[in-house]
Write a structure and sequence with these properties.
alpha+beta; 14 helices; six-stranded mixed β-barrel; two-stranded antiparallel sheet; 390 residues; 52% helix; single chain
Length: 390
């Protein structure tokens, strides 16, 4: 019987302008949730993209390690100690440094992240890097990340035209730069902590940063023999190596980085808080809308009670309205968010991308938000007495 008369729909559209304003308000909340979750996911994806593109089954980090962009070197000898362990096939050290990259057109210096390794022992799962290993065998030639932010200049575009490009790299607080030639391109992309990337021979890092020693590495990559159980080797290495070293699997390495950005940085806390606050604000907004609608039609609801309709029926009408508002407000919110994602990706060069699971998550959150508001609003009907109204 409840669906025989579209009471919920008729009440909503009785005042067209108010109904459209209501949908606009819900759509705004949907957009807010989409953007907050979109940037939060982009934070995690960009922060761990390097981790996902590294070779290796196990990873060695310093016990003082915080994140991939924080400097926590440890002795290279720790990595070579693992070569004597059964199941270990090979090891590769990775050197990481921040420097200033001088835009060859404007002269502006911008921070850039430098990743150095021995070309004879590659560390990246990237066909582009593999094809250019011979290029970085020379200390003065580097690979430039074409997905870097635009402040570094049109490096990728000029290189694609066949032009020879020389740039200067400056260690922090140094007046004199080190000249290098762009020898190739690759794609990695920026993150919330990195604007651009260079791949170099580790000898280049030692030449740019004169206080850096070859014995100091930032990350150790361990490749295991086929068929070896990583957990068994990890357990042995954790007991075998000194306490100044941690051994992680790839997934643990990724989760460690996510945990840092989630719990130990202000931006992670802000994103998590804003998602919760957006949901709470949505509940309050929809509650006010439904409560106002009930108040405006209180006499009609009292009449329905007086002629025998039960409270469950009236509550079901409120929940129908909440569901209609959720779905109708979600549709324009999703469309606008989809367009804003493309704009945000093009502007920030971050992986702000729409996905099916993200769309379903926000849809469920919107329906839940409206149903909570409907439940709170329906409590007003519980105490409605037709005798008091009339």
């Amino acid at each position: 019987m409840i669906f025989s008369i579209p009471l919920a729909w008729l009440q909503l559209i009785r005042q067209r302008v108010r109904f459209l304003v209501t949908l606009a308000g819900i759509a705004f909340i949907v957009i807010l949730l989409f953007m907050q979750i979109g940037f939060q996911n982009a934070l995690y994806a960009s922060a761990t993209f390097l981790h996902q593109n590294l070779r290796g089954d196990l990873f060695l980090i310093s016990s003082q390690y915080k994140s991939i962009t924080s400097k926590q070197p440890f002795p290279r000898s720790r990595l070579y100690q693992t070569l004597g362990v059964n199941g270990v096939q090979s090891v590769s050290p990775l050197y990481l440094e921040f420097a200033k990259f001088k835009n060859p057109e404007t002269g502006q210096k911008s921070p850039i992240y430098i990743l150095g390794f021995d070309p004879a022992s590659p560390v990246f799962n990237s066909p582009e890097v593999e094809q250019n290993l011979d290029v970085i065998k020379f200390p003065n030639r580097v690979l430039f990340d074409r997905a870097s932010r635009p402040e570094f200049g049109p490096i990728a575009e000029e290189f694609a035209k066949g032009k020879s490009i020389e740039v200067e790299i400056f260690p922090s607080n140094a007046r004199d730069g080190y000249s290098v030639e762009i020898g190739g391109l690759f794609s990695l992309g920026p993150s919330f902590g990195v604007d651009g990337n260079l791949i170099v021979n580790y000898l280049t890092i030692l030449q740019i940063f004169l206080d850096r020693q070859a014995e100091e590495i930032d990350l150790g990559l361990i490749t295991l023999n086929p068929g070896v159980n990583p957990q068994e080797v990890l357990a042995y290495l954790s007991a075998y190596l000194p306490q100044d070293i941690r051994v992680l699997t790839r997934q643990s390495f990724i989760e460690f980085e996510k945990e840092y950005w989630t719990a130990r940085t202000p931006i992670g806390f802000v994103f998590s808080s804003m998602v919760i606050m957006g949901f709470v604000v949505g509940v309050v907004v929809v509650y006010q809308i439904l409560y106002s609608n009930i108040s405006n039609h209180l006499a009609e609801y009292a009449t329905l009670k007086a002629i025998g309709f039960k409270h469950n029926y009236l509550s079901a009408v409120i929940f129908q309205q909440a569901l209609l508002l959720a779905i109708l407000g979600y549709i324009p919110g999703f469309i606008i968010s989809f367009l804003l994602y493309d704009l945000a990706k093009a502007t920030t060069h971050l992986p702000v991308m729409m996905s099916v699971d993200k769309a379903l998550t926000i849809l469920c959150a919107t329906i839940g938000m409206c149903w909570i508001s409907g439940w709170l609003s329906a409590n007003k009907l519980q105490s409605t007495d037709p005798a008091d109204i009339f």
